Amino acid sequence: MALDKIELLLEKYFEAETSIAEEKELKNYFASPDVAQHLEHYKPLFGYAVQAKQEQFTAAIPLQSKKRTNVFWLSIAASVAVLLGVSLFTFNQYNQPKSQDLGTIDDPEVAFRETQKALAMISEHVNKGIGSMKYLKEYEQSKDKIFK
User: Fold this and answer.
1) Given this model, what pLDDT does residue 120 score?
2) What is the count of structural domains for the chain?
3) Does the pLDDT value for residue 1 go beyond 90?
4) In this structure, is residue 116 part of a structural domain?
5) Three-state DSSP class for 19?
6) Which among 15, 33, 54 is the end of a domain?
7) pTM of the model as a whole
8) Per the domain annotation, does 68 fall within a domain?
9) CB-neighbour burial class of residue 22 (10 A; exposed 0-12, middle 13-18, buried 19+)
10) 50 falls within a domain
11) What is d(CA 9, CA 17) in angstroms, rounded to the nearest whole number?
């Protein structure tokens, strides 16, 4: 009768339907020396609790002293580095020669020719894009004929 009960409890255990008391009963059964032969392979599954209770942490945990002085000097060094970097950056910005060449043209005829060149280039690229649209229109017509 007890063996039947243990097998029923095992089925309930693997279906995750056991209570805590039933799990304790299973642990006690598998901790005892009189486990049925066909249930021996479940012994390590339930024997972990006994082994875990016997384990103890014996290593010493070293306590590190707080070294505030290192942090203090490190923060001062970081502040100096940031200050030096900002001052070098601003010094270089103010001492660079100012370039006034922004692509402006004083002669109106030269400006007109440069503008025509730029507009011709833009027109060429737009026309190339419009030319490729013909293929899309042809594709749409073919698709409409096929899928009607």
Assistant:
1) 94
2) 2
3) no
4) yes
5) coil
6) 54
7) 0.36
8) no
9) middle
10) yes
11) 9
